[in-house]
């Protein structure tokens, strides 16, 4: 029997108390800049058992301004920005070449929290990108060596052959270069912290970058 999607959607609960703990968040105690609060919330998500808290949605747009979004992994966050990586020739890479601006979104349902970030994106120096790649797992290097991301694939057998060859090289050459591998860094212009509330009085705190530094403001949920 076919699934009734609408009935299934109506049966689902948001922030089931058996799985989610909604902590209080007093925005008046938030630090002057967003990075320390992000680090605090990220650590809390890890401690709460959030699955893959380092994954995030990445939204870009093409030359025509048409949007796209996908899940990627956070590679780092510091005063220079939030970092992620991909091949320069991938769809996201081509988008960022044409329009070097993007948005990120982290969602940690175990705490009813999300963090939204947007700003201009630049590519880190090649040696930094290669160093980041080679500090990761053998599987990450094998995937990068397989290459051809976002290109049309002829068959799963073709991918299996390319992947097997890439795995062999990654094991024998752990420092093998991948010239197309690019480490991107998003420099935040806006960072919003969202804390869910059981009574739907959600707290939204937005940081905006100005010439004088960061400003903070609350938003209606």
Write the layout of secondary structure elements.
Layout: H1 5-11, H2 34-47, E1 55-61, E2 67-73, E3 76-78, E4 81-87, H3 91-98, E5 101-108, E6 113-123, H4 126-134, H5 138-146, H6 156-172, E7 181-186, E8 190-195, E9 203-210, E10 213-219
Antiparallel strand pairs: 1-2, 1-5, 3-4, 4-7, 5-6, 6-7, 6-8, 8-9, 9-10
Helix pairs in contact: 5-6
The first-to-last residue Cα distance is 39 Å
Per the CATH scheme, the topology name of the domain at 26-134 and 179-219 is Pnp Oxidase, Chain A
| Whole-number mean pLDDT | 96
Query: Which shape, going by the Cα principal axes?
Result: globular
Key phrases:
221 residues; alpha+beta; ten-stranded antiparallel sheet
Give a brief rundown of this model:
With 221 residues, this protein is an alpha+beta fold. Helix content is 29%, strand content 32%.
General description of the model:
The protein is of the alpha+beta class. It has a domain at 26-134 and 179-219: Pnp Oxidase, Chain A (Roll). It is 29% helix and 32% strand. The protein contains 6 helices and 10 strands; from the N terminus they run H-H-E-E-E-E-H-E-E-H-H-H-E-E-E-E. The chain has helices at 5-11, 34-47, 91-98, 126-134, 138-146, 156-172, and strands spanning 55-61, 67-73, 76-78, 81-87, 101-108, 113-123, 181-186, 190-195, 203-210, 213-219. Strands 1, 2, 3, 4, 5, 6, 7, 8, 9 and 10 form a 10-stranded antiparallel beta sheet that branches. Helix 5 crosses helix 6 (156-172). The longest helix is centred in the last third of the chain and has 17 residues, at 156-172. The radius of gyration is 20 Å and the shape is globular. It starts with a helix and ends with a strand. Pfam families: PNP_phzG_C, PNPOx_N. It comes from Streptomyces azureus. Keywords: Flavoprotein, FMN, Oxidoreductase. Its cofactor is FMN. Residues 181-221 form the Pyridoxine 5'-phosphate oxidase dimerisation C-terminal domain.
């Amino acid at each position: 029997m076919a699934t009734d999607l609408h009935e299934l959607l109506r049966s689902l609960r948001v922030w089931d108390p058996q799985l989610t703990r909604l902590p209080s968040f007093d925005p008046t105690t938030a630090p002057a800049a967003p990075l320390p609060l992000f680090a605090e919330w990220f650590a809390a998500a890890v401690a709460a058992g959030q699955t893959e808290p380092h994954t995030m949605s990445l939204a870009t747009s093409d030359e025509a301004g048409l949007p796209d979004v996908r899940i990627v992994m956070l590679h780092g966050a510091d005063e220079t920005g939030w970092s992620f990586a991909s091949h320069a020739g991938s769809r996201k890479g081509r988008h960022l070449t044409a329009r070097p601006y993007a948005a990120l979104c982290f969602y940690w349902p175990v705490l009813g929290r999300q963090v939204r970030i947007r700003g201009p994106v630049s590519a880190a120096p090649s040696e930094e990108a290669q160093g980041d790649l080679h500090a990761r797992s053998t599987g990450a290097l094998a995937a990068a060596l397989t290459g051809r991301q976002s290109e049309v694939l002829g068959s799963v057998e073709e991918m299996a052959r390319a992947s097997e060859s890439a795995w062999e090289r990654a094991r024998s050459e752990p420092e093998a270069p991948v010239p197309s591998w690019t480490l991107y860094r998003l420099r935040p212009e806006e960072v919003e912290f969202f804390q869910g509330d059981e009574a739907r009085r959600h707290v939204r705190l937005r940081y905006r970058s100005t010439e004088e530094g960061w400003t903070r403001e609350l938003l209606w949920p």
